[in-house]
Design brief:
The protein is 22% helix and 34% strand. The protein is of the alpha/beta class. The protein has a six-stranded mixed beta sheet, with helices on one face.
Length: 171
């Protein structure tokens, strides 16, 4: 958010899309220590736990079956996000640990630093009301892959090069 509390111009606060009849919602989240780790001015960083709870509640009110936080949060915040139960999936960073945790129907994934190893996550979804009020059951499959073993997607590589990246870095 900007210093005035309003979203920064040009940023999207969430994305939703449909997959096989399920409405999936994604939103971004970052640790409060971002203010001291980088220079995000004029952005204002808010506490990620209440922010996640607010975002997830709003997205569920809009009909989201699955809520995913794309998070740059530390281990403590990751654990608190899972325990809070507001989101179904946390795709995290910050600690650069290669890890996966599936607990109480919620999933936490963190890939290694600099994209050296990435997590490929496949979520199978089952319809039905769960005791906790969510409308979809997550059945995850996770595999970790050394990114150096993956050939770049030609369309994405071309877009990255067009945006100014060195093509040699992509191979």
């Amino acid at each position: 958010f900007g210093a005035d509390g309003a979203p920064l111009p040009g940023l999207v606060d969430h994305l939703t899309f449909a997959v096989d009849g399920f409405k999936i919602a994604l939103f971004g989240l970052t640790t409060a220590t971002t203010m001291t780790k980088s220079s995000p001015a004029p952005a204002r960083i808010v506490d990620p736990l209440p922010a996640a709870a607010r975002a997830a509640a709003a997205l569920r009110a809009e009909g989201a079956d699955v809520v995913v936080a794309l998070a740059h949060t530390n281990r403590r915040e990751d654990a608190a996000l899972l325990a809070q139960g507001a989101v179904d999936v946390v795709l995290s960073g910050d600690d650069h640990d290669l890890r996966a945790q599936h607990a109480s129907g919620r999933l936490l994934i963190e890939s290694a630093s600099q994209g050296d190893h990435i997590a490929i996550v496949t979520l199978s979804l089952a319809r039905g009301d769960r005791r906790d009020g969510t409308r979809a059951e997550l059945l995850p499959s996770v595999r970790f892959v050394a990114s150096a073993t993956i050939d770049p997607d030609p369309q994405i590589a071309a877009a990255v090069v067009a945006d100014g990246a060195d093509a040699a870095v992509l191979t």
